[in-house]
Amino acid sequence: MSARKPLDTQAVALMLLLCTIWALQQIAVKAGAVDMAPLLQIGLRSGISAVLLALLMAYRGERVLWRDGAWRPGALAGALFGLEFLVVGEGLRHTSASHMVVFLYTAPIFAALGLHWRLRAEALRPLQWAGIAVAFGGIAWAFLGRGTSGAAVGDNPLLGDALGLLGGAAWGATTVAIRCSRLSSAPATETLLYQLVGGCVLALAGALAFGQMSFTLTPRLLGNLAFQSIVVSFASYLAWCWLLRRYLASRLGVFSFLTPLIGVGAGVVLLGEPLEPAFVQGALLVLAGIVLVSGHAWVAQALTALRARTLGKPRGI
After folding, report:
1. In contact, 103 and 168? CB cutoff 8 Å
2. DSSP H helical segments within 96-255, as ranges?
3. pTM (2 decimals)?
4. Is 289 helix (H, G, I), strand (E, B) or coil?
5. Which of 80, 149, 157, 256 has its CA 20 to 30 A from that of 112?
6. Radius of gyration (C-alpha) of the chain in whole angstroms
């Protein structure tokens, strides 16, 4: 296989599209809650996507599941992925999609901490530690700095935000489980299938346990589920795997900070969600921390280039 290359115009355009799709998935779940509970939506979309992916793998002649030695880490990754969406689905009942997308995308912070603990090659650099400190400071401010007179974002925003943060931790743990097991060398489609099956099982079990199985079948709901199942959970994840096989992962990861930005904007524009000043300030700190953790190499190179350019200028200019 050829070496992965830096980003070109095609990769940048596709990443911008993917970030927009991923940002809209929380908006779609929140908008569809009128007709179907979020947990049931997530369970159904994961199940539909798993079936589509299994059919694609069968068509390609790939082993669908239970490859030798991979089923145990696969089951763990699936359980963590399912836990992520279990708490996200429940959290969206209590807080806004704007809040959810920001707290969910703290996942790179938790993944970096877990990999630092598990793998010597993934030891954190000073700039990344600074990013983690900034991000957690932003989380604390978003939670503690909200005023009692601020606009409401849900019936229990503190609980919903906490569940979103737990979802980010579960997503980060999923990354660590994959990176530190045989799944790191398994086909991306197999790894994704484990996660989709786990998401389907746990989300549907949660919907059943919490009495959230009722729904109203409407054209809006059908279109929403089609978008979530086919575009978000199937096509966009496959496109992401395609990018990872061809381009430098560190360069792609820097784009992750765009997703919560787009998600917050979409929540305000499409759902009319209010934004508290403390949340906005905290979210900006969280995003800055994510950039430092995920794109530390790029940031360091940019600072080095800026320093060299500055030192190279004649005096008086």
Report:
1. yes
2. 97-104, 107-118, 126-144, 157-179, 188-209, 219-226, 237-246, 249-253
3. 0.84
4. helix
5. 157
6. 20
